[in-house]
Amino acid sequence: MHLEVPANSIDISTGAWGNFYDSNTGDLALGMIFKSKDHLKASVQDFSVRFARREYRVVESKPKLWKVACKYDQQTGCSWMLRGIFQSNMGLFKITKYAGPHTCLMNEISVDHGNLGKSMITTHLLGMVHQDPAYDIKFVQQNVKDRFGFEISYHKAWQSLKAAREQVYGTWESSVKKLPRFMAFVQKLNPGTVVEWLNLEEWVGCFQGQSLLASDRLHYSRESVQVFYA
Hints:
Elements lengths: L32 E2 L2 H16 L3 E7 L2 E6 L2 H4 L4 E7 L4 E8 L18 H14 L5 H12 L5 H16 L2 H18 L4 E5 L5 H4 L6 E3 L8 E5 L1
Helix pairs in contact: 3-5
């Protein structure tokens, strides 16, 4: 499973290099280094959304190169741009060209920041979802607005919350795969527990194409019968 990358790149040892992106200040600079291309991208995204409050577009992206420019450079003449290149001698990405700050006006940006994507929101939600598995979708939009200052659509909020839950707890499919081992453990701790797996064809018409697991009579005792419909 792909794990989202936080913006900060200060997890690299400062013994040899010390020019890192700090998500508390949001400063980008020529010569700044990053653990990977994903860390570089996450840091530029964090800077653009939370601090510059401007949008950027990807000009060029290769395994060892990433170049971005102001989204409105052609319309406004804004010269903001950044280029990061992989340094083979360091094994890290480095900003080799940087022109800032933005000269475009803030009113060029949309209400829903174009660079405030699902991955960034997902990373932000991980801690909350870990604390509260039932963290409700109705809190996501307001939480994102409070944190980043931008409104997001219900769809983006739902997709981000879903991704956060899957990163913390796994997907529905991976959870179902763990069920046999879980039930075997229940049987071991509760001698006499009976587990019966049923495939009810009459449910197919109702739940065709849906990953569904329903349960009934979940009473953990010697007399109970665990019935799972999958």
